[in-house]
Each structure stands twice: as structure tokens, then as C-alpha cells.
Amino acid sequence: MNHNKNTLLSSPSTSTATATATSTNQLQLEPEIYQPVLNNENHYVDNIPSTSWIAQHNGIRCECGGSRKNTVYMTNPTFTKHTRTAHHQKWLEQVNTNRLNYFVECQRLKICIQQQQRQLVEKDNLLVQKEMIIQLLTKELREICREQNDKGSLMLLDLMSFD
Ligand SMILES: [Zn+2]
Question: What does R_g of the chain's alpha carbons equal in angstroms?
Fold first, then answer.
């Protein structure tokens, strides 16, 4: 998995829109989650993307919560207005207070993702092995059925389409 989702609190310009499958199995692009940026003094500050950037990313949503938790902002001015609310400013203050915790959490998540990737590869390999065993056993079973002229079982094997 090389298309890492945005690292925590990275610049919006480095992030990508995510897609989720809806109940009808259609891909629907999700709005981008807003992330403040680090300034020269190592403080997270608001950095509102342009309206065209927001449009390209299917809108922007803020994680600061509050009454506008699920609001998707579609333009720079509407989102800028949101970032000036007391609730958002308080959230930004907390982001700065918890900076180190976010970093530690980010490292923990990276390790967790690596472990899960390894587990996935292991499971994939196991699955390939099992498929090979099934193919081999099916072939042998087919030969036995042919020798015994067991047409019923042969038909069943064909129906199950094991090769
Ligand atoms: Zn906000």
C-alpha cells in the first residue's frame, strides 16, 4: 500500500481525496479532511486552500467538531468563516497543545499499518498455497473418479469448477 493517506496534520496540498464504496457499490469521492499546517515557529496554523482546490477535492470538512461537524465547505470564503469561529480556534489551540501526542500517535499508527500489511501478505501467501493444494487434490480426485467411472462425482467437480 503505497498511497499513504495523509499523514496527520500534513499540508492539504499533499493530501488526496479518498473514495468509499456506497451501498450501491458505486465509488463516491469523500470531501477532504482539513489539516492545518506548521509555520516557521513549529505551530499549527490555519491555511485555507483555494476554492478551486476545495472543488477538486469534493469539498472540505473540518474535524474540530461542534455544531458544524458534518458540514462540507465548498469555497474558500465559507471555510475561512468557519475557521474564525471560537470552536475552531479552540480546536487549533488544542492541536498545538497536543502536538507531541499527535506525533507519538502517528508513529504508533505507522507501526500498526506496517504490521497489518505484513499480515495481509502472509494471508495472501497462505491463500495461494491453499488454492494450489485444492487444485492438486481436485485433479487427483478427478482421476480417481475417472478410474472408477463415477460420472456423478465428475459432474459435481465440473459444476464446482475446480480446475
Ligand atoms: Zn473547524
Answer: 26
